[in-house]
Write a structure and sequence with these properties.
Elements lengths: L5 H11 L3 H10 L4 H17 L8 E8 L5 E9 L2 H4 L2 H17 L11 H17 L4 H19 L5 E2 L2 E5 H12 L4 E9 L3
Antiparallel strand pairs: 1-2, 2-5, 3-4
Helix pairs in contact: 1-2, 1-3, 2-3, 3-8, 5-8, 6-7
């Protein structure tokens, strides 16, 4: 194993918020590669949080966001397992980021499981009619309709949307990142978005 300096450990700790010993081990495991060490810690934290999936996330915060134009506002409930975590800056920052994201993207539900069946059936009917209009063969048409539905979920459900601050990841990934950092289950309970005139 390569020799790891205290400076490297300190830098990794500042970047990730992980404990000193975890940072040292991550750097040792990745031969001093800082980016790989960050990823190693994220995976370790995410794995620890994953073990807690069955646990109830009954604590949390209600966060609000009002757009600077004052014509869009959001309230979001973000849950975690303990009130201690609910008071941390990482958790509060995540809640603020999610509220801002909702204001910007106007999702219709937290996840695809929360989308009303009638909404899904309406979309499926529209896509089927569009594909028929294009004269596609039936065996191809079904795949196209399913693809369009998948895209609909990715664009309109919060967890599957591309995160506005970093479109390289989804909102679910942004939540997983914080979950890995704090080691507790995090879940979006519900949200409401208000827009003037709607």
């Amino acid at each position: 194993m390569s020799q790891i300096s205290a400076t490297e450990v300190k830098e990794l700790r500042q970047r990730t918020g992980a404990g000193m010993m975890d940072c040292k081990r991550a750097l040792q495991e990745t031969s001093g590669d800082m980016e790989a060490a960050v990823e190693w810690l994220r995976k370790k934290g995410a794995a620890a949080a994953e073990k807690r999936v069955g646990r109830e996330a009954a604590e949390g915060v209600i966060e609000s966001y009002i757009h600077h134009s004052r014509n869009v506002g959001v309230l979001v409930e973000l849950n975690c397992e303990t009130d201690f975590v609910a008071r941390t800056e990482d958790f509060r920052e995540l809640a603020r980021d999610i509220a801002m994201h909702i204001a910007a993207t106007d999702p219709i539900a937290v996840s695809r499981e929360d989308v009303p069946l009638e909404t899904i059936e309406r979309e499926r009917t529209i896509y089927t009619a569009q594909v028929k209009e294009q004269g596609k063969p039936e065996h191809v048409a079904d795949k196209i309709v399913e693809g369009k539905l998948r895209k609909f979920f990715e664009e309109r459900t919060l967890l599957e949307q591309k995160y506005v601050k970093n479109p390289e990841v989804k909102v679910a990934d942004r939540i997983s990142e914080t979950q890995g950092k704090i080691g507790e289950k995090i879940a979006v309970g519900r949200f409401v978005r208000f827009q003037v005139g709607q």
